Amino acid sequence: PVGVTVDPEIEEVTIEGFTVTFTPTKIGTHAINCYVPDSEIKDDVGLTLRVVSGEPTVVDTVLDANSAVAGRYVDGRCLLFDEFENPILFSDLESGAALPTLVMDESISMNSQNELGYTIRGTTAGDHTVACQYGEVVDDTPAPFEVVPGPPSRTQTYLNPETVYATEPVGVSCSVYDA
What we know:
The protein is mainly β. Helix content is 0%, strand content 54%.
């Protein structure tokens, strides 16, 4: 029989004769060295095991600001994780992998996107949400995004009715719009 040291340590290691098996769940590197139990015999060189993240199973939406004036841009990111909560970098994905998409109200538009993130802007005041989607995986806790009206830029006057007899009351209403 043999023994194996794994650094950093992995909890469940199975040894059957001269074969050792284990399943790493955290990304990083592990130094692996075989040895003969109850002796001084050890592989002093060993090998290094590189553990990379698994397939994306969780996506999280992050906005740099949860509120913005209508028409202003806000940066954000889609963070991917595997089933063991290991972060996944786009460089870890297969070459040519698609970028995440955004699930959001039609009054919110995406201005730009790259591997590091995206830029969005809202045009209609109100409470909205933004959720990243990668393939079939959608953020189940979308980021809240409040769009607030910008400073007034124009007004519009309404009459009701537009034609009246002398001494008849007239209703006037005004609307104020941002840019």
